[in-house]
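Sample 1 of the test manifest.
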Amino acid sequence: MNAYYSELFSFHLPEVILTGGALLVLAADLLLGKFSSEPVRRALAALLGMLAMGFAAEALSPYLRGDTSALGQLCLLGLSGLTLLLIAGTSRLRHPAEHVALTLFATVGFSLMVTANNLLLVFLAFELSSITLYILAGFDKSSPASAEAALKYFLYGSVAAAFLLFGFSLLYGLTGEIELAELGAKLSVLPASPLLVIAWIMILAGFGYKAAAAPFHLWAPDAYQGAPAPSAALIAAGSKLAGMLLLVRLFAEIGFSPLGPALQTALALLIAASLLLGNVAALVQSNFRRLLAYSAIGHAGIVLLMIGIAPADPQMAFGDVLYYLLTYGLASVGAFGVAAVLEANDARGQKLSDFAGLWQRSPFLTICLLVFILSLAGVPPLAGFFAKFNAFYDVLGSLDSAALTSSPFFWLVLLAIAMSAVALYYYLQVLKQAFIAPAEETRPLRIALPATTALLFAAAGIVLLGIFPEHFLRLLF
Amino acid sequence: MEIGLHHFVTLASLLFVIGLVGVLVRRNTLVIYMCLEMMLSAATLALVAFSRYNNTMDGAIFVFFIITVAAAEVAVGLALIVALFRRRETVMVDELKELKH
């Protein structure tokens, strides 16, 4: 029994380290918090949190070669680490230790989501990340907007979790298994049944919520707008990466069979709705965060497009989704970081017009914003372009070339390319404000060191992943 | 009449649909929470029934975890309602209209 448990600990060493780190952060704050001021407490908590993430990454490093899910975990740690830096650099909220500890717990959930091989573990990891994210979304207790965002996020999230769970219970009922590999083996010999279709539709609904894919996207604009900036960055980057890697694994292990066409149609509808709604609704937004939310819905469409090829080639789909969402995550953490710096200086950074004259106020911040926004828009040579190119190339490559035009995925790729052009318009609106619009406020911006570091890392990551994608992709394929 | 698996699955589906309709129709957040719990209970019931008829314990063990998770979820949800009520003095979802562009 003891040997068994110690083995379990060594398999989950990164998660154990993160959990221990979170408890340590809380304990340190409890013991030392009384004697120190709020900024010192925040710095201490963030430092301990970063150390825990560093040790967890160290524990992962032996597995990086040959195990792509370890690479996924490492990317998630990186994105959460940037969020911690944003907390240290821009947040003025009370209870910094709890803020950091919850971020660590959410990261444990993300990490487990990527490695889960069992329906029970999938559900627990999904819920661990969701529940901590609800708290993080409502962490600003002085703001009614934050509480409202958290409540809406909670309500949609709980319904999604219930759907997911009911879908799982049907899968279990059909096969009697909860291990993914055995479940997949039993499902592949079952005939298609209406129950199986219902189960899969329910699971897709649950994950559609995580990805903020239309029509399960209603929470996203409100949560992005109302949540404190570091929490919104975590929801946008880490949560989405973990959720989508988990969906790829589910599809890879369980597979579409025996109901390929029905499920593909459902997925195609989700993709088309997300691409159209996200990109068109983003055109009319005057709030920067809502704009990011609607653009995230559009990006979710492209990610689901890649997931559509998961049953045919899981390894490729996993790599493509990881590369795409890593670049997307870096860019959105960065964009939220820029907004957070503005908010820390002026107490406003929500509206697009708040970005007016940013170039005069802080050239560094504006260059960072330029990198993030152009990467989201998919402009070469930044990583966002190669991620999109890679996605479209692999999806088209996986289609049967003789019957190209009869596949819905071919038309969806065309739609996604057309929508990228639409997206360019609203992304450039942001840059127009930052570079051209006259400044109302000309005070230079003060950027705290941790925030500078986070922005620098995110921007450098995007540029390097864009110029030298082969170094990263070599680890994946 | 013999009570079989399909009776349980029908009942669970019915509970799930009632819960979902409640979430969509009701305006009071506390009632919505109850309906959410009903949706989770529906999944729990289905799991227990499947566990019995599949002759494996996995489903029954799953249920213990669900109950724990549901309790944690409600605790967070109620805390959010309290936080919101302190700022806005309402628990009705149709009065939550602060977040608009």
